[in-house]
Design goal:
Shape: elongated
Number of domains: 2
Largest sheet: 8 strands, mixed
Pfam families: DAO (PF01266)
GO cellular component, one term: cytoplasm
InterPro entries: FAD-dep_OxRdtase, FAD/NAD-bd_sf
Number of helices: 8
Keywords: Oxidoreductase
Protein name: Glycine/D-amino acid oxidase-like deaminating enzyme
Number of strands: 20
Order of helices and strands: EHEEHHEEEHEEHEEEEEHEEEEHEEEH
Structural class: alpha+beta
Strand order of the largest sheet: 6-7-5-15-16-17-14-18
CATH superfamily of the largest domain: FAD/NAD(P)-binding domain
Radius of gyration: 21 Å
Oligomer: single chain
Length: about 350
């Protein structure tokens, strides 16, 4: 895409990815408008487990994941006060042989595992320790990104539904239609989660993204029960406040039983709530990021593992849109692979 610092960018979607794109593009000098039907991070971002899981996964997103820790550290320097907790992560599977570790991981024994998680009833024979990993408050981070975008001049329209993408007589993007009237722009970034497919379809573009349900449980728990991000065959689990745990898992009953059996002092843990979030899952489960060849000015940025990838993706997308670069790290993420 031929771009310049004078680009007028409309970002549709104020979840964590859209907020990151808006912040980075505004910081790079673009005139940015961010629009969302709800509040910052009010969609699936709010229901994310929000693990900065830089070592998980493979495929075209692996390169983006490897960057995640450094990208978050950079963002912390740019936006002081980000709600990030660098607790590390501890993963194991009962009854399985120890895996090969990936860069940034360490294989640890039971003695080390119990030092990292002192309340374990039966420390596993082996565990994978990710010392550089952590977690975020996803809504708080999204709000910080939007505040940062505003400081660089971005215009933000919340609680304003977008009904479609506008095109001029030559077929080029001209902005979006909203419930409050049109918003103009020479580039439109669709980063609206599962709604991305519907908005793209309104101008004849197919984006193969479907909602993928995931349940997040919240528990009342004793302070300090869990110290790291814990990943087992039963749950992803972390402490988010002195008296609160969250878990990504399938069954509330099995999850609660697993917490009781895994940690000493967990007898008082009780379920408070369960929410189902609908993650935007591309057909091949890899991010879709890049320009749409058939519609000049249209750009798509939609993915799973949005919390992990958002800081790096926002920076790279802004570089492509504002500076006119072609980022090699995004080469495997283009829509035209389908």
């Amino acid at each position: 895409m031929n771009s310049s610092a004078g680009t007028q960018i409309v970002v549709v979607g104020a979840g964590i990815v859209g907020a990151s794109v808006a912040y980075h593009a505004a910081r790079a000098g673009a005139a940015v408008t961010l629009v969302d039907a709800g509040r910052p991070g009010g969609g699936v971002t709010a229901d994310s487990f929000a693990w900065i899981a830089s070592s998980l996964g493979s495929g075209v997103a692996a390169g983006l994941r490897v960057m995640a820790t450094d990208e978050y550290r950079r963002l912390e320097a740019e936006l002081p006060g980000l709600p990030v907790t660098w607790s590390g992560s501890l993963s194991w599977r009962v009854g399985e042989s120890a895996p090969q570790t990936k860069p940034g991981q360490q294989l640890v024994d039971a003695a080390t595992a119990v030092k990292l998680e002192p309340n374990l009833r039966e420390p596993p024979e082996w565990a994978v320790w990710g010392p550089d990993e952590g977690a975020v408050d996803p809504v708080g981070l999204t709000e910080h990104l939007i505040a940062g975008a505003r400081e660089y001049g971005a215009q933000v329209h919340l609680d304003v539904p977008v009904s479609g993408v506008r095109r001029d007589a030559d077929g080029r993007v001209a902005g979006v239609e909203t419930a409050e009237g049109p918003l103009t722009g020479t580039t439109v970034v669709l980063s609206a989660g599962v709604a991305t497919a519907t908005l793209a379809a309104s101008i004849g573009v197919s984006v193969p993204v479907e909602p993928s349900p995931a349940t997040l449980f919240r528990f009342r728990a004793p302070a300090g029960l869990v110290r790291t991000v814990v990943n087992t065959q039963d749950f992803d689990l972390r402490q988010v406040a002195p008296d609160r745990l969250i878990a990504a898992a399938d069954s509330p009953e099995r999850t609660l039983a697993a917490i009781h059996s895994t940690f000493r002092g967990a007898e008082s843990v009780e379920l408070l709530s369960a929410r189902v979030g609908h993650r935007p899952m591309p057909a091949d489960e890899e991010p879709i990021i890049g320009p749409v060849a058939d519609v000049p000015g249209l750009y798509v940025a939609v993915m799973h593992a949005a919390v992990t990838l958002a800081p790096g993706v926002g920076r790279l997308v802004a570089s492509e849109l504002v500076n006119g670069t072609t980022e090699e790290t995004l080469a495997g993420c283009r829509l035209d692979r389908f």
